[in-house]
Write a structure and sequence with these properties.
Layout (H helix, E strand, L loop, with lengths): L10 H18 L4 E6 L4 E6 L6 H16 L6 H6 L3 H8 L10 E6 L2 E9 L3 H17 L2
Antiparallel strand pairs: 1-2, 1-4, 3-4
Helix pairs in contact: 1-5
C-alpha cells in the first residue's frame, strides 16, 4: 500500500499568522480580512477587522486556496499568465476560487509548502505587505 504523509500547518501557527496580519494592517490603518488554510486548503483560521469589506471575506479565503492549489504566491500569476496562451489566461481566470493578484502567500517549513495565508481589504501592495509581515513574525517566533 502506498501512503503519502503530508506536512500541514498547525492551528497555533495559523492563529499567529492571522494575528500578525491583523496587527500590521491595524498599524497602517487598514481594515482587512485574513484567512489561513492548511496544506489541503481547508480554513484553519479566519479573522476580520470590523468594517472590513464584505467581498474581502471570500477573496482572502480564495487567495489562500489558490496558493495551496498551485504553490506560488498569487501575485506571481500575472507574469506567469502573460507567458501563456489566451486560452490558458481566460480559462484560469474563469475558475471558481482562482485569484491571480497579490495577497496570497505560501507558508513553508523547511522549504515544504504546509499552508497559505490570504489577505484582502487593502490595496494589492498592502495585502502582500500584511501577509509578509505575518510570515516574518512567525519566522521570528513573535
Amino acid at each position: 500500500m502506498d501512503i503519502e504523509m503530508i506536512a500541514s500547518l498547525g492551528l497555533a501557527s495559523a492563529e499567529q499568522l492571522a494575528d500578525g496580519a491583523l496587527a500590521a494592517a491595524r498599524e497602517a490603518g487598514v481594515k482587512i480580512c485574513v484567512a489561513v488554510v492548511d496544506r489541503a486548503g481547508y480554513p484553519l483560521v479566519f479573522k476580520r477587522h470590523p468594517g472590513a469589506p464584505f467581498h474581502s471575506i471570500d477573496i482572502a479565503l480564495d487567495k489562500a486556496y489558490t496558493v495551496v492549489s498551485f504553490g506560488p504566491a498569487t501575485a506571481k500569476w500575472d507574469a506567469r499568465l502573460a507567458k501563456g496562451s489566451d486560452m490558458l489566461r481566460h480559462g484560469l481566470m474563469q475558475r471558481d476560487r482562482f485569484i491571480g493578484f497579490g495577497g496570497g502567500l505560501p507558508v513553508k517549513h523547511d522549504g515544504v509548502l504546509v499552508g497559505a495565508i490570504g489577505v484582502s481589504g487593502g490595496s494589492e501592495a498592502q495585502d502582500v505587505a500584511f501577509a509578509e509581515a505575518a510570515l516574518a513574525g512567525l519566522a521570528a517566533g513573535a
